[in-house]
Protein 1
Amino acid sequence: MKPVYLDNNATTAVAPEVFEAMRPYLTEFYGNPSSMHTFGGQIHRKIEDARGSVSGLLGAEPEEIIFTSCGTESDNTAILSAIESVPGKRHIITTRVEHPAVRSFCKHLGRKGYRITFLPVNHQGQLNLDDFIKALDEDTVLVTIMYANNEIGNIYPIEKIGAILRERQILFHTDAVQVMGKIPVDLKTLPVDMLSLSGHKLHAPKGIGALYVRKGTRFHPYLIGGHQEKGRRAGTENVASIIGLGKACTLATGNIDRESKQLSKLRDKLETSLLKICPDSRVNGDVTSRLPNTTNLSFEYVEGEAILLRLNEYGICASSGSACSSGSLEPSHVLRAMGVPFTAIHGSIRFSLSRYNTGEEIDKVIEIVPKIIKELRLLSPFSRDNTGKKIACTP
Amino acid sequence: MWEYTDKVREYFLNPKNIGEVENPDAVGDVGSIVCGDALKLTLKVDKETDKITDAKFQTFGCASAIASSSALTELIKGKTLDEALKIGNQDIADFLGGLPKEKMHCSVMGKEALEAAIDNYRGIERPVEEEGKVVCKCFDVTEEKIRKVAMENHLTTVDEITDYTKAGGGCGECQADIEAILRDLWSLKTPEKPVKPKKLTNLQKIALIQDIIENEIRPGLQADGGDVDLIDIEGNKVVIAFRGMCSGCVKSGMTIEGIQAKLRELVSEDLIVETQ
Ligand code: FES
């Protein structure tokens, strides 16, 4: 059974074109781009072409792109570089809904004596810009706020935040891992100093990421060793994956508008149908400013892991913010920060689409999900309405 | 993804004994929607024989919670109440071919529901949990429950308590309290701290100090970009040299005092650490 893969915010399929572009660099062209001989040295040019493709998608200059091993490395590098560049200051502002690559790292710095402000969000997961402005002070060295949230899809007002920070000359980093290829990003006008991205959310393979560092921003490398990436990131280049990321960016460039229309059409159909069929269900997130491919739904009285494993029986892949499915006992920090009631957090399911999803797949999910919710609600001691009648999905 | 046995999968996908028995003789209600799992067990009991003639369940929770509840109903049907009370959470897990250790709390929930139902049948008032007795606020777990589950399952570490009761798995604030309860509970059986070797020869002492610096002190410093070298040992004087120390190292207690304390603890009380 071919899976119906609706977990693209976790990872995406490698595009066939990307794989083809990579293949020669895993077979015949295995040289080291640092070598003096042509066999290796010629690969250097290919890496530069890929750098151009990545910068092209971002509206950046090629020399502003540093290849890394993943989004987490990009995030960690950006934060460390910022605090090393301005050694006297010790205050960092971030949000309560960041990805662990930023959140856990900031907590770690908090234990090392940095002062960290985790900005709260409201019920829709939105930030309050006044809170943000109030948090800024003389000691603030860096603001790091995600471009879009992986769990609920909210897009944050990066442009406004960046403009405020530019005026005060405070460094601004954004984790843009979830937005690449989904919404247009133009760093020519976007006031951001550093930006992280990851290949495997964009139909390139796992194990490749990039960090954008605006020209003129002071930078301190994280990995120190060889002279690769102009000394900004040591370590022999992951050639094939760099080529793959370049290709993935080329594929995305120019297609974002069309693709995001297609994605949001399917997503909206899925969302409205499920909300309509299943009583006591809701959307988590800001429906006015959201990634086109993401919907996070809560079904009361049932638990997310149980939903996922029953979906799994039909080959449907999704994810949940429930405690049991997270591998810890704590449910999603994002939904908790939003103040989503526990009853709804436990039954939250995220569907995240990609360009490879079809209308038939979405129809199948619309048919299966209500059936599963109904079965699980029959099992649940909570699903009764005021009259004592069991609640289940209509039909 | 959790590694569930085929039996768990089967009992999760096609659970037996779902629902509520009509006019139940006994009802056991445990857990809450806030904590992420809950179970309502209803029983029919034969007054003459004290046997459980029917058992049904309703569960809110993950796959293993549903499977554990269903397994419980299968295990107790046909048993007398006293026989049923002998069933432990481990029996529920065994019936399912085992549970991932992080999911053992699902089997504990089954056991609790059974006890609650039988108390209910016998008209035993369940003591309302006193405020002060709740050890874990996040998951509403009392000291009594921690002690009971620890005894029944021979649990000795906080992690095990978390796997079996969830206590300690939220904010983590109660972990020290759980630790204290465990220490108290097993006080007689706690393994003795490895005793310091009594009298060391000079060579043994040097080897031990080298070993501690290498394996316990340097990694912490290196993680912060610092380092330390052992320069010399003369009698009780240990001479070291710090390399590239940063403020982080100082914070993590890896100062000269910190190293001295560590060496005194592990080697000998009379050591004096100095820098070069
Ligand atoms: S109080 Fe026990 S984990 Fe929070």
Note: Residues B 136-138, 167-174 surround FE2/S2 (inorganic) cluster (CB under 6 Å).
Protein 2
Amino acid sequence: MGQLQLAGVTKSFGKAEVIQPTDLEITEGEFVVFVGPSGCGKSTLLRMIAGLEELTSGDIVIDGRVVNDVAPVERGVAMVFQTYALYPHMSVFENIAFPLRVAKLPRKEIESRVRRAAAILKLENRLDHKPAELSGGQRQRVAIGRAIVREPQVFLFDEPLSNLDAALRTEMRVELSRLHNSLGNTMIYVTHDQVEAMTMATKIVVLRDGHIEQVGTPLELFHRPVNRFVAGFIGNPTMNFLKASCLGETGDGVQLRLETGSVVTMPVEGAARQGDDLTLGIRPDDLVIAEGAARFEMIPEVVERLGNQSVIHGADMAGEPICAVVGGAEPITQGQKFELGFHPDKAHLFRPDGTAFARRNTALA
Amino acid sequence: MKSSVLDAPLRKNLPFVLPGLIIYVAFVLGPIIAAVVLSFTKWDGLGRPELAGFGNYLQLFGDEFFLKSLRNNAVLIVFYCLLPLLIGVALAAIVSRVRKSEQLALRTLLFMPYIMPSAVLGIIWQWLYNPAFGPINQILRGVGLGALAMPWLGDFDLVLPAVGLVATWYYFGFCMVIFLTGLQRIDPSIFEAARIDGAKPWYTFGRITLPLLLPEIRIVLLLTIIASIKSFDLIFTMTRGGPANATLVPNIYMYELGFQLNRYGYAASVAIVGAILIFAVNYAVHRFVRPAGTGAR
Ligand SMILES: Nc1ncnc2c1ncn2[C@@H]1O[C@H](COP(=O)(O)OP(=O)(O)O)[C@@H](O)[C@H]1O
Ligand SMILES: [Mg+2]
């Protein structure tokens, strides 16, 4: 129960194809996160699964049944909205009970299910309140409660945390993960925030302009992004991209010259010809001070001191923007150039069209 | 920061307020007080008013014409208030689902009656209702329903609904527009949430849409009830209260008493009772139609 397949699903609004042909397999109990920049079609995809938008073509299969023309309520899905979508004139109890009243459950059953959900969500002493009397986090919990009582096969969340402040967001993230662990249901979660995706997902689906860029576990996406877009989207701070021209292939991989003049040999598979304009990607955390096979100098412009580490924004000698994360005790000051380096097996290499070379390091997830 | 000119002492600001105040006192407050005073007198408009105490009011509640006018007005409230409200809510629920461009056209079309002077509409409808050559009866005869071609404004039983329906037609577009704005205020995902939870359209309408539209329902109730108690021009232009007082309402009665029978004191007491009715109904609506979820007492 709680399996879901998308087969060749598309969606057009008028002439605009908002979702390009999409295939996706979701198995029972997964916590799947759709992540991508604003306007990439995440909500549309989720709403198609919910039954709020019709498909233009393709099939959605839930537990072996094609549900294209099945009403939302019969799909066994429950949805939590970004704006909470609580009924402002009803008490918390009535809000949570709403789907059960619609289903005409006996009063006793409604009462006990609502109380159980309220206990899970720590809302027991808020049941008589109106939504307007609750904090943002509590409102979101009521919305989740309304989804829980239906005991759906699949939970759908559309950016449920974006209206909360940062501290509450972190807290709710943990609570949602806990909820997923205890209920064990399939959950599909939409967000534009890659941190939410990385922290909660068992499987991440990265979307861009209505098509799937990559599907994988958080660590797969982190260590083996298939293209520059995914590499740049996943990870915080964002990966550095350095221009590199190919000097040719050696037995150890592809040899490159960076703009700053350093020569690196990247341990990757795949063909590259001399003179190709490639892009080298290196995460800020993988840059180390005066260490590694590839070295270059950096001029810091802004130093953000977080205590345990410092985030340094600046540029290399060729003027390319660089961000580095170094230990909090490092004596880096603004404008004082210093030497950085990295190990080539930590870096990524991208072709001119943005696709990634496969990395040789098999130790990575 | 310099304090506002409004904080200046009264005598300094009085010159600015005075012109408006004088006009208000002369044309609004003065006449109201005069009417109240007048309602306690007998006055034919020429001689000196004679004090009559509560005589006018006592007489009023034994006056069968006045009681009839109140009964007629009660019936008219259905047409001024209830029907436009129901039609307006229903249309708003439907029109809000239509695409934006068509919605604008529908909204404009249905709102149209409201922007015309009701006296003009009364004259137009009098012609539409004309038993011999009015378009309504001509069409009825044309499609073979000649049996239904009635003397709409001449029949004792038909005339009140016939006049009332014009008021319904006049107000429903206005109600619809208010309800449409109300619907726009409501977060659309509320309706989507209800749909995902399996609520059928009627259930959603009754349990969610209507309660959330209570603020608008209240406004519409207030405005249309006031309009019905104040009703004069539509009725005056269509029937003048006839035939045989079948459409007599307090304001028409007041007009007849004052300007045709020269019983100004008595007419004033009719006007005052009408005003009291409006206050009473307003209070009732304020008291009993409460938007849910906001400081319910
Ligand atoms: N009802 C609609 N009509 C027309 N275009 C729409 C509609 N809903 C969404 N879109 C378009 O589809 C694209 C994807 O929207 P959406 O799925 O909401 O993106 P997001 O990833 O931010 O959730 C956007 O370009 C948006 O403008
Ligand atoms: Mg969205």
Note: Chain B is about 70% helix and 0% strand.
